[in-house]
Amino acid sequence: TAGEPAATEHKRSAPTKDEPTSGPATKRGRRALKITLIVLPVLIILGVALAAVGWYARRTYFVAFRDDQVALYKGVPDGLLGWDPTLEFTTDLTRDQLTPAERTPFEDARRFGSRSEAVAFLGEVADNVRAREDKERRNQHEQGRSRTTTSIVVS
User: Fold this and answer.
1) By the number of CB atoms within 10 A of the CB, which of 42, 81, 106, 110 ranks highest?
2) Cα-based distances in Å from 27 to 17, 18, 70
3) Neighbours of 35 (CB within 10 A)
């Protein structure tokens, strides 16, 4: 009869979970999805780990000798997994100007959490050296004056 759907009409529906799908394109798509679901998290974990190591290797500062000059470096002494320390600057202070106690932090590559802490430390050391050198100069000057003003007259 008119208006009634024919009994022989079949509507094509999407395959169900139980129906096997076939074809090379479908198999390749599933394989690519599986590989992506495995590789992507591994790449993310490796990227996060690499970023963490880089952050650790570059977040600190340390003082050391560069040849015989006092220097400030950024990074970890001796480097870490390819992140070598970088020279921030050298000072006019030399190893010979420092007392053995003042040399120790530079020989041990003393670390600081920030650039400003390291610079403040270097300023303190420089102030101590300058004060000691000024005192030595004054003492030498006083000794020189006392030698020149003292005279012995023999009659």
Assistant:
1) 106
2) 15, 16, 65
3) 10
**Both structure tokens of 137:** 């100069």
Task: Report d(CA 33, CA 35) in Å as an integer.
Answer: 5
Token pair, residue 28, equals 């390749």
Average pLDDT of every residue of the chain? 81
Q: What percent of the chain has pLDDT over 90?
A: 43
Spatial separation of the C-alpha atoms in residues 38 and 31, rounded to whole Å: 11
15-27 burial, b at 16+ Cβ within 10 Å, e below that, comes to eeeeeeeeeeeee
The number of CA neighbours under 13 Å toward the Cβ of 47 is 6
Strands in 61-66's sheet, in edge-to-edge order, are 86-94, 69-74, 61-66, 111-112
Cα 28 to Cα 35: distance, rounded to the nearest angstrom: 10
Q: For 68-80, how does the pLDDT look when each residue is reduced to its tens digit (9 = 90+)?
A: 999 999 998 887 7
